[in-house]
Design a protein that fits this description.
The chain has helices at 17-22, 60-72, 102-113, 145-162, 176-186, 207-213, 233-244, 259-268, 279-290, 296-310, 320-323, 335-338; strands at 33-40, 46-48, 56-59, 77-82, 118-123, 136-137, 143-144, 166-169, 193-200, 249-253, 273-277, 314-317. By secondary structure, it is α/β, with parallel strands linked by helices. The longest helix is centred in the middle third of the chain and has 18 residues, at 145-162. It binds ligand PBG. Residues 122, 124, 126, 134, 170, 206, 209-210, 278-279 line the site of ligand PBG.
């Protein structure tokens, strides 16, 4: 064999699991994760979502049970998405601020059962409008900014009264964070946080989510309010504005195709960053897993790790059941010691 002089051998730090774990730069833990839950009316309802294998729409009683199980496993935050009866959908999304509606009841019952769980919910009109847009629409089919903000305020106040911990405006109207902050403060809800979907792209990866909520766009697309996937500087501007307006947490969405945006935002802000590992990111991996092309658990773990490595502090993901067994608290497999193979 040839004689080599290799003074720096990085493989020494990869020699065994105990060392690999000591030198691990990024660690994913259950408390980094936020579980999105789809809520339906009724009792003991558990309705599969065709495009999201493994994810179900749950009635409030089962959502409470699910939240308790997640909490016991270290996942301390959930985000609620109501699946509305089509008969309740309305051009102005009035059900969005109904204090006795499905979302309000879900927030109340879950916070009552688990006061220590952090409960969040979207603030946007799309689950509640029959046209499927996030805002009010005029006769020309334009999405109205300032008029929509009035609705978002009503929706935020309803959620605050029901006991929400974070309202999460996901609508991308200009100026909504400041307006919601002011309205919450004026009503005595200064303790309610705002997680702003700051850089939310007009992505093709939301399809399964819209299937889950049975939201169908009656016309057009969301490109006049959600961002162009080509733009990163603009994401920094959106986030800076939301921060100035009082957002407590800034979100980038989707996550894995936008890791550069997360990394750039990490350099700009001292605020926590959330990333949304969205329905399409989940569905692609599950489809490949079901076809036998790859292992979903490992791909999800790697994906979520990459999102955290890029700079996200918290991650919304549907892949919690798949990754939980792979997360901290780590337990070294005793076999590794017995085999003495290193
Ligand atoms: C609603 C909303 C959407 C998602 C979260 N909140 C869809 C959309 O904007 O069309 C997508 C989440 C996902 O795909 O998992 N504004």
């Amino acid at each position: 064999m040839i004689e080599l002089n290799i003074p720096i051998r990085l493989r020494r730090n990869r020699k065994m699991e105990a060392i690999r774990r000591m030198v691990q730069e990024t660690r994913l833990t259950p408390s980094d994760l936020v579980a999105p839950l789809f809520i339906v009316e009724g009792e003991k309802q558990r309705i599969p979502i065709g495009t999201m294998p493994g994810v179900e729409r749950l009635s409030i009683d089962l959502a409470v049970k699910e939240a308790k199980e997640l909490f016991a496993q270290g996942v301390h935050a959930i985000a609620l998405f109501p699946v509305l009866d089509p008969a309740l959908k309305h051009p102005e999304g009035k059900e969005a601020w109904n204090e006795e509606g499905l979302l309000a009841r879900a927030i109340r019952e879950i916070k009552f059962a688990l006061p220590e769980l952090c409960v969040m919910a979207d603030v946007a009109l799309d689950p509640f409008t029959n046209h499927g847009h996030d805002g009010l629409v005029n006769e020309k089919g334009e999405i109205l900014n300032d008029e929509t903000i009035e609705c978002l305020i009503k929706m935020s106040l309803m959620q605050a009264k029901a006991g929400i911990d974070f309202v999460a405006p996901s609508d991308m109207m200009d100026g909504r964070v400041g307006a919601i902050r002011e309205a919450l403060d004026d009503a005595g809800f200064e303790h309610v946080g705002i997680l702003a979907y700051s850089a939310k792209y007009a992505s093709a990866l939301y399809g399964p989510f819209r299937d889950a909520l049975k939201v169908r766009l009656a016309f057009g697309d969301k490109k006049t309010y959600q961002m162009d996937p080509a733009n990163a500087r603009e994401a920094l501007l959106e986030a800076a504005l939301d921060e100035e307006e009082g957002a407590d947490i800034l979100m980038v969405k989707p996550a894995t195709l936008y890791l550069d945006v997360i990394a750039k935002l990490r350099e700009q802000t001292k605020r926590p960053i959330a990333a949304y590992h969205v329905s399409g990111e989940y569905a692609m991996v599950m489809a490949a897993h079901q076809a036998g092309y790859l292992n979903a658990e490992k791909v999800f773990y790697e994906s979520l790790l990459s999102i955290k490595r890029a700079g996200a502090d918290l991650i919304f993901t549907y892949a919690i059941k798949q990754v939980l067994p792979l997360l901290c608290p780590f337990q070294l497999n005793i076999l590794n010691f017995d085999q003495r193979q290193n």
